[in-house]
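It is worth pausing here to work through a concrete case rather than discussing structure prediction in the abstract. The textbook approach is simple: state the sequence, then state the predicted structure, then interpret. We follow exactly that order.
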Amino acid sequence: MIQFQKTLLYYKLLLFAIVISFFSFTSCKTKPITKSKIVGKYSCKISDHHNISLMLEESGRFIYDYNESLNFMKSEGEWFLKDNTLILNSWNIGKEDYIIVEENNSKPKRCIEIKYYDNLSFQYCTVILNNSEKMYADGNGLIFLDVNQKVESIKIELFDDITVYEYKPNNPDTKVFTITFMRDGFNTVYFNNEKGKFVHNMLKILNREFIKQ
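Step two, the predicted structure:
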């Protein structure tokens, strides 16, 4: 009889725990985010000279502004919500930008040369060699390489890793890689289904955390 009572008590406690867990689960399910709740301006201050803002307008238009010292980037387009996820799609401005890469022997030292279409040097962008080694162009748009270093791939990141260009060399032992940016305007950036998540008044997108103002 005592054993039966213990068994009955065990199953009652087990049933109670299941019921509590069920109600806890249903009450914690993510609530749908409404469009009106997230409309507004979001900002991310990285330093005194490095600020990013994102405006979500009621009309469904977004305005993205990136400001870092002398680098200014902007994007405009449409935003919408899908499964509580923010999605940004830029208008076509900046979509067709591209690079031209020449493999040559134009410099006395082995290097990567980065410049604008008007032959001005492109300063301080980030270059990733062979998907592993991160390097930075100097004030003359140059990155010097080791004599025996093989270059299997080149990735160029601009403006907080937002815009990325990739190139696979024809000859990994080329002495000089001359990279020319062919862009209509260097103040635009293009987003294609860029996704972000909301956590309370914070928006996590583009590897950054934006606070709603």
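Step three, interpretation. The chain has two domains: 35-93+188-212, 98-182. Residues 22-28 have pLDDT under 50 and may be disordered.
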